[in-house]
């Protein structure tokens, strides 16, 4: 049974969501602030439903904190902030979906199911400690990438980027997420640096270059 955490400062809304989600087979806990949620060991949950506008720490701030700590559970924002800039910001900081209030429970259920499917699907083949997509193979132990049986030269950063994207096929990573995961913490990296590395990576994987796709305004993913 999937475990969900609902974080919203409207207690009545939390109760409505909890009742309906439990009725559809989910195990659900609630928190009425981001601070309360932080004390609940969020890593125990499979998905986070998160309000944006709350007193104290906002939903965006909580999401940034979780992604900075390396926590990868899916996050769906539920909020009255439905402007385009708000949606883009929510997705760029690591949100997996964004639902504007007021919403229909059926829509929330459908979005949750879709996000959970994406997060649990492993479209790339995992053989031993290798990632494989057709004839593109990454050996995670020896740190070697081969294409059609030929060893390819990759920098450490390029290797980390390709491994991350292949292992999470279909998941869109913002530039900031890629920076957090592929570069050392003490290195200052700009969005432009990410773009340059992605361009070099596409050239190196040749026939699979189109597999690294851009979702305009959001980031990159392996399709």
Descriptive notes:
By secondary structure, the chain is of the alpha/beta class. Helices cover 39% and strands 22% of the residues. The chain is built from 8 helices and 12 strands. A 5-stranded parallel sheet has the order 2-1-3-4-5, with helices on both faces. Strands 6-7-8-9-10 form a 5-stranded antiparallel sheet, covered by helices on one side. Strands 11-12 form a two-stranded antiparallel sheet. A hairpin with a 2-residue loop joins strand 7 and strand 8. Helix 6 (156-167) crosses helix 8 (191-204). The longest helix has 16 residues, at 105-120. The two termini are 28 Å apart. Mean pLDDT is 88; it is low at 121-126.
């Amino acid at each position: 049974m999937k475990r969900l955490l609902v974080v919203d400062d409207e207690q009545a809304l939390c109760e409505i969501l909890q009742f309906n989600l439990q009725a559809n087979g989910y195990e659900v806990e609630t928190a009425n602030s981001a601070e309360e949620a932080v004390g609940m060991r969020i890593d125990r949950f499979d998905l986070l439903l998160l309000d944006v506008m709350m007193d104290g720490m906002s939903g965006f701030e909580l999401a940034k904190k979780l992604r900075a700590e390396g926590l990868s559970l899916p996050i769906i924002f539920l909020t009255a902030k439905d402007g385009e800039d708000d949606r883009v910001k929510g997705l760029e900081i690591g949100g997996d979906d964004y639902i504007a209030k007021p919403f229909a429970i059926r829509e929330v259920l459908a979005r949750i199911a879709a996000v959970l499917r994406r997060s649990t699907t492993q479209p790339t083949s995992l053989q031993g400690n290798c990632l494989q997509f057709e004839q593109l193979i990454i050996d995670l132990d020896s740190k070697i990438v081969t294409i059609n049986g030929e060893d390819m030269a990759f920098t450490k950063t390029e290797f980390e980027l390709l491994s991350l994207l292949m292992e999470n096929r279909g998941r869109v990573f913002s530039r900031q997420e890629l920076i957090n995961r592929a570069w050392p913490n003490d290195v200052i990296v700009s969005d432009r640096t990410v773009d340059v590395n992605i361009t070099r990576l596409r050239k190196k994987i040749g026939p699979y270059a189109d597999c690294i796709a851009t979702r305009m305004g959001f980031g990159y993913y392996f399709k």
